[in-house]
From TrEMBL:
<feature type="domain" description="ABC transporter">
    <location>
        <begin position="5"/>
        <end position="230"/>
    </location>
</feature>
<dbReference type="InterPro" id="IPR027417">
    <property type="entry name" value="P-loop_NTPase"/>
</dbReference>
<keyword id="KW-0813">Transport</keyword>
<dbReference type="InterPro" id="IPR051782">
    <property type="entry name" value="ABC_Transporter_VariousFunc"/>
</dbReference>
<protein>
    <submittedName>
        <fullName>ABC transporter ATP-binding protein</fullName>
    </submittedName>
</protein>
<dbReference type="InterPro" id="IPR003593">
    <property type="entry name" value="AAA+_ATPase"/>
</dbReference>
<dbReference type="InterPro" id="IPR017871">
    <property type="entry name" value="ABC_transporter-like_CS"/>
</dbReference>
<dbReference type="Pfam" id="PF00005">
    <property type="entry name" value="ABC_tran"/>
</dbReference>
<keyword id="KW-0547">Nucleotide-binding</keyword>
<dbReference type="InterPro" id="IPR003439">
    <property type="entry name" value="ABC_transporter-like_ATP-bd"/>
</dbReference>
<keyword id="KW-0067">ATP-binding</keyword>
<dbReference type="GO" id="GO:0005524">
    <property type="term" value="F:ATP binding"/>
</dbReference>
<dbReference type="GO" id="GO:0016887">
    <property type="term" value="F:ATP hydrolysis activity"/>
</dbReference>
Length: 288
């Protein structure tokens, strides 16, 4: 099985917003970063993957199975880590284990205590006393303790201090070593994904812009800078978006090879970060 998540021609409409004809595949054994501005549709997509929302058209399959006939089997194999405390605030981790554990056929007490120790989590303190970073670790420990094959994370690093963020990213990289897990990581903190992602899917205003390997993105996308005298109707076709200023232009391209053939050494080309790509694809800002 190559794809753990498959969305085919998925549409979901709300008042004033819609997800339109999304086709998305998430490959097994890799970390896929899911990026987009707030309100772009990331949480809606995740809710459909979790069967918390149903698409109006199209098909959602997880592990090659559909929710209509295999919901319990699918959810046995998924771990969900959410931006926020999803547990009762007065409960401690021992209480949560006692409630959550029996819900999963493959719950592993030994593994749970192993992660609690590794993540340095207190067993007997109420969840309301946990920092946001500790809550993330608690959610991850529970997800891993039933041997989840797919970890879906919705903005897990939002609001974390830089040290906790770095620690969480290191943990995720360690989890991927044996190749048995797949992580789908939704975030607007794109610098996290520069460090750990294998693939990036970008959603904008309810439409999937691309789903590419981090290598292909680095190869194809770049920022191009040069004098405005180089721009005309033909040369601007090489760019996704151009921003003009008093001293020249800066533009995003998704075809570095074409830019080099068109402009040669007359422009300066530099790597585009994921943040740059998001910014320019949304239209950027013009100098005034």
């Amino acid at each position: 099985m190559e794809n753990v998540i498959e969305l085919k021609n998925v549409t979901k409409k709300f008042k004033g917003f819609s997800i339109e004809n999304i086709d998305l595949q998430v490959k097994q054994g890799f970390i896929t970063g899911f990026i987009g501005a707030n309100g772009a549709g990331k949480s809606t997509m995740i809710k459909m993957m979790m069967n918390l929302l149903k698409p109006e058209t199209g098909e959602v399959k997880i592990f090659g199975l559909d929710y209509k006939t295999h919901e319990k089997a699918i959810k046995e194999r998924i771990g969900f880590v959410y931006d926020g405390n999803v547990f009762f605030e007065g409960m401690n981790l021992k209480d949560i284990k006692r409630i959550v554990g029996p819900a999963y056929k493959h719950w592993d007490d030994d593994l749970f205590y192993q992660y609690v120790e590794q993540f340095e989590l207190p067993l007997n303190k109420a969840m309301k006393t946990f920092s946001k970073g500790m809550q993330m670790k608690a959610s991850l420990a529970i997800a891993l303790s039933h041997h989840a094959e797919l970890i879906i994370m919705d903005e897990p690093t939002a609001g974390l201090d830089p040290i906790f963020r770095r620690e969480l990213l290191d943990i995720l990289q360690e989890l991927m070593i044996d190749g048995s897990r797949t992580i789908f990581f939704s975030t607007h903190v794109t610098t996290d994904l520069d460090r750990i992602a294998d693939y990036i899917a970008l959603i904008q205003s309810g439409e999937l812009v691309f789903n590419q390997s981090i290598h292909d993105i680095a190869e194809n996308y770049a920022l191009v800078k040069g004098g405005t005298e180089l721009l005309d109707r033909d040369t601007e076709k090489d760019f996704v978006h151009v921003r003009r200023g008093p001293t020249g232009f800066e533009a995003l391209t998704d075809n570095v090879k074409e830019v080099k053939e068109t402009f040669g050494d007359t422009v300066f080309i530099e790597r585009a970060s994921l943040e740059d790509i998001m910014y320019y694809l949304k239209g950027g800002l013009q100098y005034v």
